[in-house]
Amino acid sequence: MTRKQKTHFIVASAVLILSGTIGASAHPRLLSATPAVGGAVSAAPNTITLRFNERLEAAFSAVVIRNSEGKQVDKKDANVDKADRRILRVSVPALEPGMYKVEWQVTSADTHKVEGDFTFRVGR
Predict the structure, then answer these.
(1) Which of 92, 109, 110, 123 is deepest in the core (most CB within 10 A)?
(2) Which region, left, alpha or beta, applies to residue 72 given φ > 0 means left and ψ of -120 to 50 means alpha?
(3) Which residues pair with 72 in a beta bridge?
(4) Which of 12, 32, 30 lies closest to 22, judged by CA?
(5) Please, are residues 50 and 82 in contact by the beta-carbon 8 Å criterion?
(6) How far is CA 7 from CA 15, 23, 47, in A?
(7) What CA–CA distance (Å, rounded) separates 111 from 33?
(8) Which residues of the chain have pLDDT under 70?
(9) pLDDT score at 124
(10) Which residues contact 122 (CB under 8 A, 6 or more apart)?
(11) pLDDT at position 6, please?
């Protein structure tokens, strides 16, 4: 390897390390939701389901559904699926037409914590 090649290698390695590409830890990421993020459904769902890219720790993962006034409307039974620990669910009663906000916080099996939210609409 020439001196110029060594210099390029060192610079490229430093850039990768500083950018977090090497040794970066993964974090749980929301892959999909039912109802869909920002979506609309004509009929109210019975359950809100979130699918993540990593296994979740049930004791440290939660989801809350709020109506347009900010009131919690889910049945407070959020749980991580025992067969597929990448899925988080919560039951909801018959939702009236309107906008709903899904607020979630999860901790992955490797202890990374992430939170987020999105809305969906019931009715057109």
Answers:
(1) 92
(2) beta
(3) 66
(4) 12
(5) no
(6) 12, 22, 56
(7) 22
(8) 1-26
(9) 75
(10) 40, 41, 43, 44, 45, 95, 96, 97, 98, 100
(11) 56
